[in-house]
Fold each of these.
Amino acid sequence: MEDAQEAPDLDPALSSGAMNLNPRKLERVPWDHSGRHPGNRPFWTIILWAVDIAWAIIFRRSYIDPTPENEGGAVFASIHINGLVDPLAIVKSQRTPFVSIGRHDIMTMPVIGWMTRRMGSQPVIRRAELRGGVSDPEFAARINQRSMLTMANCIASGHPAVVMPEGKSHQDSKLHALRTGTLRFTLNAASIAHSRGLPMPVIQPVGLHYRCHHWFRTEAYIEFGEPINIPLVDDQLHNSKLVDGVWTEPPAEQVIPLRDELYEKLSAITPNSPDWETYRAWHLLGHLSAIKEGRKLSSYRQEVLAAREIRDSNPPEALLEAAIEAAEILHSANLDATVLDENAKVDRRKPLAKGLVGALLMAVTAPIVVISSGLQTLAGWYQGNNSDEGIDARTTHHMIGAVFSPLLFWPIASLVFTILFSLSNPLTEFAFAFMSILASNFIFLRGYDWWVDFRTSLRCAILARSDSGKRLEELITEIEPTLVVLK
């Protein structure tokens, strides 16, 4: 397994948003060094409700493991390959107000900034922005220290925190180098908790897995590694300054080992593969191993864990090369190993009835869906495909539309319905209109899923009849006898 010193340490290309520093708004971002959550509690209640709806819109299926228990605060840390969907996934897994820290413009941009400020999110001006001349070092240090001290006090007081310790979203199948900021405010959180006689916080590694992270209606699996205990800084002056509200840097000799430990623990529950081609090959081998044992992997969670077993078994190079070629044949047809049947052949069954019912469900609900969700769907599709943030930001725009549908667009559509057709009880009619919109959108999505299943079956049939399909069968025939070496 690659160690922290070998991890890629490249600054991200600065997007137009990252280049747009708004000092006035950054100064006004809510913060609190007493340990109270800087967000708005009633707003969080609404956000958690909206997150549930948005999650069900974006993902077709998801699997969330139980979270290890801890009396104190917990710093939830994960790989960052899916834009703002990554922190959304962690919030969804816990269903409680979090404190978070992120790129400065997420707190100042229109719409999203309004929401993140009320959630209590804290801004940070990154090394990349400083090197790019976006901010002067003095202002950046003041904002960053204020934000990190807010994070430390909240964590010490028992609030959970969401952090992306790589400091950027990227497209690689393994961790990039971890920034030290997360470990610095985490160490200081432990110092504050100890000084106040509060339960000690922990770092909670989170494994975020997506079947294809930039696809709409993909699958997700969220898992949790063993919590990492945070060592105490044995310096009374350091600890007392923090309690008095003065940011003090923890010693590097404690920051670096903690960073390396987090990197190691986090790598174990990420894809941690040389590239996505290899990771897809591990998934294929996991499926073939299960089929050889007379069973099928029935969930994405099972697939991830099976692929990890393959990874950790260090398969022979010849076997891996054949698996990579086979997996790429599937991937080039927008398919994966889930299309293999119990005989390890591409499934040729065509669920025509399912496809027709799906098309019917979409047709019946389309008028309501287009009126209530058409605008934000079109905007999310356009922005996602034309963003300068990279492909990892694609689902961020899907998420924005999904979150603001129940918060803004659906209430407006319900209000218009109530005004136009009000009979005797406007409140009841508004509630009926809103629930009708909600139900119609989810019925439409179910129809969409069934239609996609039918389209997938057509691609399977085309592949099975092609030369590539014959080559896939040859490769699987070569692979199957060698699977025993992985046991």
Amino acid sequence: MTIYLVVYLILFAAPFGTLIHEIGHVLGAKLVSADKITLTMGAGSTIFRFVWNKTDISIRVLFFLGGMAGSERRMPYQSTEQIIIAALGPVSSIIASGLCYGLYNVYPNSYLLILLLFNLWIAVLNIVPFRIKDKKSDGFVICQAIRKR
């Protein structure tokens, strides 16, 4: 049973939780009228790419190795808009955790628990302000935007 849970975590829960988180950023970018939005899932060469609702979406071979959403606009984002885009990633992960919690109370099983915990973990990890080289957490972006005000 344990190997099934590990495979489920790697091939479903982590990519799905990451997708939910990145869709939060995409929604934030749409809310502040971004001109260009990209959503990339995974690493390696692109195996599937399409544009939907002004969002360029790419799925890569190693789809389970994280994701990234980005956006651009001719007019620079104001601090509040940067906060909205950055915050909606963790917020969407928290909402997903809450939904999983509700389902888990009705249908308790290990798969829902893993999805719940992964979404909670990704929300907490991303709200903590840190930077590693050029990569900034959502919390770091929020702190930077607050300091600019």
Amino acid sequence: MAQTRKHFHTFDALRFFSFLLVFFHHLPTKENSWLQWFSESGGIGVSFFFVLSGFLITYILLLEKHNQTELSLKNFFGRRILRIWPLFYAMILFAFLTPHILDFLNLPDSNQGYEPDWLVSVLFLENYKIMLTESLPGISPLPVMWSLCVEEHFYILWGLLFFIVPNSKTWIIALTALLSGVIFRIIYHMNGLIFADIFTNIDYFAFGSIPAFILVKKHRLIDKVAEIPLTLKYLFFLFTLGLIFIVPQVNFPGKDIITPNILGFFFAINILFTLPPRNALHIKDSLWISRLGIYTYGLYLFHTIVISLVLQVQKILNVSFNWAIIATLSLTITIVISILSYNLFEKKFLKLKKYFYSSN
């Protein structure tokens, strides 16, 4: 029997919270400040994005394989392109125009990081340039776009694998990915390489795929999850929140190798807890944190530009804003720009996604 594609409550709220982790990570903080302790968890926000993406993409692919005789790569890649490419390439254009804009306004650039290569950026290879140079590109928002490169590589890899592998064997993809992530991190660690590609992050996506497999292929287990007391689910959620802030502060042998498995597991369980029709972790779509989560893609791409702009204005005016003012101004402006971007630019492309669904 065909399954209807679900709307997932709570995810937009979790997206916005994850963005906030990344946002605070990029704000300037004084050494030994409690704010620095908070900002060090920023990278974990990206980790959650990977896990959530693993769930959503796997769910979509499994559902299409379940409902149709053959997965349409044209439709799958078409929808992904319409969501990612327009704003991605608009931001690349902005980044490469920035030096000329600064020169015209007689403003200094950062003089930090490597000089961007347009071909590397356009081909979604910024993450590999970062790995090879062990530095970041010198123009915003290119430094944060490495994760979008990883996402794009995941879409290609996952889409092709699900197209090739029979529906009954797709679980092998997730299992292989879970094992591969650890193996690649060990190899990269031994060779002094940064973990900034799909191979060293693949198990984040694989952990996210597990609740998707349960939802589509083992749906009766969702009823078992519903029987878990809601109090325990929220306690687990709070424990996960604590883990987000504790993990960066704790050091132990093999931390870089094992941490993705720890975080991936906890994030996947929390996603699973949102899926039952009753007794689920639930953050209402009507709440502001959920509504702002709709604009997460723009928030992620615009925030470093806005933070840099606020800091530059501070220098021009020869004033010293405290952390709270910088954070409030930067976040407010980022939200406004992201809402405008979504409604005036991104939405025009998202409306075209209707042409990339099967008529069956």
